[in-house]
Amino acid sequence: MSIEYAIIVKNKTRLETLIERFNTKEQAKFYIERLGGNFDDYVLEHETFHTSLVSLQTQLSKVIKNKIVERTYVPSYIFTEKNLIVVIGQDGLVANTAKYSRGIPIIAVNPDKERYDGVLLPFDPVNFIYGVEKVLVGKYHFRTIRLAEAKLNDGQRLLAFNDLFIGASSHISARYRISFSNKKEEQSSSGLIVSTQAGSTGWLSSVFNMAYGVTGMFEKNLKLKRPKLRESDLVFAIREPFQSIRTQIGITAGIIKERYNLTIESLMPVKGIIFSDGIESDFLNFNSGTIATIGLADEKATLVMNTPGNAI
């Protein structure tokens, strides 16, 4: 089946979001500068992004028909085999898009290399068209990313490209019963992070930064070791586990393989939540009586690379 449309996925800039909030650019500027912020940086970011976007659209239109889908509508957009996806924005936008992509090739473009790390953005507005042309003829280099899945006992499920968060929706302790690798205990914590291989340099890395930072205060010459995950692995970590008469800390982290699913039973009457890839609006309620099984999903994301050896 031939590809007929390129779907450009983008997000609003910070400036656009501010103007929506304050109605005009002038009012947004007044608000930011009154608080001591640098409004010029918002403007520069906005202008750089839209310059990149216009360049991308101009080049793309010479090769294939295309249309823009805002990130807000991605969860409800139905991608087909007649599409290829071009994401332009930050790394997080790639993750947010990938879990709805149904394995369709994703060309991820960094619009501002001076601002964004681009771990998941191998292309820029100059060379991305090379990737598009290669996809159109079916001769492109790619990497597949296995997604994580949270499946509830009522049949609901949620996918994640980078990570899942299981916990409370506010700054209260999450209460749950956790089962992993033949061990089970009741816990109270700030929640769990479950990370894929792609997400191991994101939110999960902050957990390791905290753990090694605190430990390093008391142990000299501490060597920082990060987990090296395979595509078929997930890693979970408990955030700030609290030990008490009722709650334990025997299970604090682990590698989830296909045969070792992680199971969590909510003990929270309200405000329990599971969300993925840092988007709290994309969530499942996780209240008392709900049991979540965490593991690898059957779905995969396909990320186009700009060279055979370019890896995430």
Describe this structure in words.
Strands 1, 2, 3, 4, 5, 6, 8, 9, 13 and 16 form a 10-stranded mixed β-sheet that branches. Strands 12-11-10-7-14-15 form a 6-stranded antiparallel β-sheet, with helices on one face. It starts with a strand and ends in an 8-residue tail after the last strand. It has 312 residues and is an alpha+beta fold. It has 6 helices and 16 strands. 23% of the residues lie in helices and 33% in strands. It folds into 2 domains: 136 residues, Rossmann fold (3-Layer(aba) Sandwich); 152 residues, Probable inorganic polyphosphate/atp-NAD kinase, domain 2 (Tumour Suppressor Smad4).
Characterize the main sheet: 10 strands, mixed
Q: Percent range for helical residues?
A: 10-25%
The count of strands amounts to 16
The CA-CA distance between the termini, in Å, is: 28 Å
Let me know the average pLDDT.
Answer: 90
Which series of helices and strands comes N to C? EHHHEEHEHEEEEEEHEEEEEE
Structural class of the secondary structure composition? Answer: alpha+beta
Tell me the name of the CATH homologous superfamily of the largest domain: Probable inorganic polyphosphate/atp-NAD kinase, domain 2
CATH topology name of the largest domain = Tumour Suppressor Smad4
- Portion in beta strands: 25-35%
Radius of gyration: 21 Å
> DSSP helix count?
6
Domain count, please report it: 2
Global geometry: globular
Can you name the CATH architecture of the largest domain?
Sandwich
Spans with pLDDT under 50 lasting ≥5 residues?
Answer: none
The CATH first-level class of the largest domain comes to Mainly Beta
